[in-house]
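User: I'm curious whether this sequence folds into something compact or stays loose and floppy. Could you predict its structure so I can see for myself?
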Amino acid sequence: MADKIIQPVMTSKLDTIAELIRQYIDLKAPISEEMRMASRLACHLGDSMPSAGLTDDDLVIAGLAYHAVIQGQACHIFESRKPAKKLTASFIGDEKSETTPIVLRDSLDSLPMVYLRRMDTLEARLADKLRALAQPRELAWSLSEIKNSLPKEILSNERQLAAVQKLSQSRLVIVTGGPGTGKTFLLSSLLDVAVKHGGIKKDNIKLAAPTGRAARRMGESLRQPWKVDYDQDTGMAKGDAVQPQTIHSLLRQDDAMDDLELLVVDEASMVDLMLFDKLIERITRDGSRCSLVLIGDANQLPSVEVGSVLLDLCEAKALAGVKETLMGSQRSKVNPAIMEDAGLVMAEAPTAELVQGVGILDSDDAIKNLVSLVCEEGPHFDKVRDYCLKEKEVFQRDVDPALIGSFAAIKAAAESGEPAKALAMSDSVRVLCSQLRGPLGSETISRLVADRLGIRVSTTSAGCGALLMITRNHRSTGLANGDVGVVARSAPGSNEVLVYFKDRPRGYALSELPEFIPAFATTIHKSQGSEYALSVAVLSEVERKGFLNKQLVYTAITRARYDYKVFASKAGVFETACKTPVLRASGLAARLR
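Assistant: Here's the prediction. I'll summarize afterward.
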């Protein structure tokens, strides 16, 4: 009987705190599951640390700190509505307190903030270590000697040359820039300089990235002698090449950083706050002289976990001297619209022409037309092939317009027993969705494409022409989370159907693979670090505030090598996304003033 009396009271309290959290965050939005979860955590904290005179104001402050982390933010910043002046809870303290689970800070940047203790401590520790890393080297490397060994492409590029100079003078260098600005080309020269002029041993260099796919792409994109030639049976680097690895695998090795002199992290925008903290902790131990180079595009989506590390570091005044932003994307010489439109999105100034070009998926027929667009050949693929030919002529690159085609063309090559051709065509087109699930989520679109092509795909089987994405790293095959393969006949007329992946000499039976999902469509988050001849973005309206944002749109557009298209669930969704910055409250940049 007592339980029946107490339960409504508890539920009422949870609802009250959730409603107060909503009022602080967004008066126009309904109470979300994240708000309810934050309310439960705050009330649990209140029960575990009872205080005389505990009020709803105390609980909502704790709830806002929990809600921030649930949403991927380091803290909650009080903007339009300030916290209550009188707080009595024993679990709330200020920056000087050392034990309270909740920290309510005086303004770091003119606005008060509330943190979970762990997040506050982590940010403060990171700021101190990064400030120390950014100090000038005790003995700078000789710039005159360095210039004599640099390729003409670096010498003629003021910003790339400046990045080299920064590495010669500081143990921390941050290189950011959009696709095609030469980040990977520059990295090869930075590695050369570190060994030839910095006295750094090749064996004491580590290359890392947030995901296995990004790590592999990093190794493949470098120039000789740093380019990684992978053993096609084991997936491991041949010879003495420095093989890029995931940050997680690097951290799992107890002695991996004992003698480390240089660590390079690519796709740094995808690194979350806690992972970055672990990494910095390891390379700044007593006696370490390790240098750190961070490379990424600060305009891309931040990590799916807590924080927006690269963006914070790029905005930090104390690190301005070690940051270099590369400009002038080579893609602009092939199809200027990609980077021009991406720039307009980031400037929150999409033109009327750009908005009018967005397709609206507000009916079954509209969705069927989207599926037809990517499944069938048409003028849009002719246009993409023309851009490919232009790149071939302008940059003298080994690209083949004939290897660009629709999903139907990929299926035709797979069914005819041409796995190499099907694989070469596999990045011709991809649908990039803002959501995983739902009517316009990547799972649904992949299923609709498979149905249109007549390809069966399940968790254990897949027909010829199916694109499959590996969803976890697999040691025995060397396949990484995010690797995409194509199902194809092993030879013309053969009944043997295998799954083929790039840089692998043989196909794999489906039974050899770890978990996989169909990959005709993927989420925009998953697409980071990849590029496709034609990217097709699909934006779905959601209730969650800030989920659709300009960084999401920018990331989708810049996955295109030659051309892109954007669709939205209804009119106005694209424009709203373009005017919404990513919501990642943080005090890291302010601590690095």
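Summary: DSSP finds 22 helices and 19 strands in the chain. Confidence is low (pLDDT under 50) at residues 1-9.
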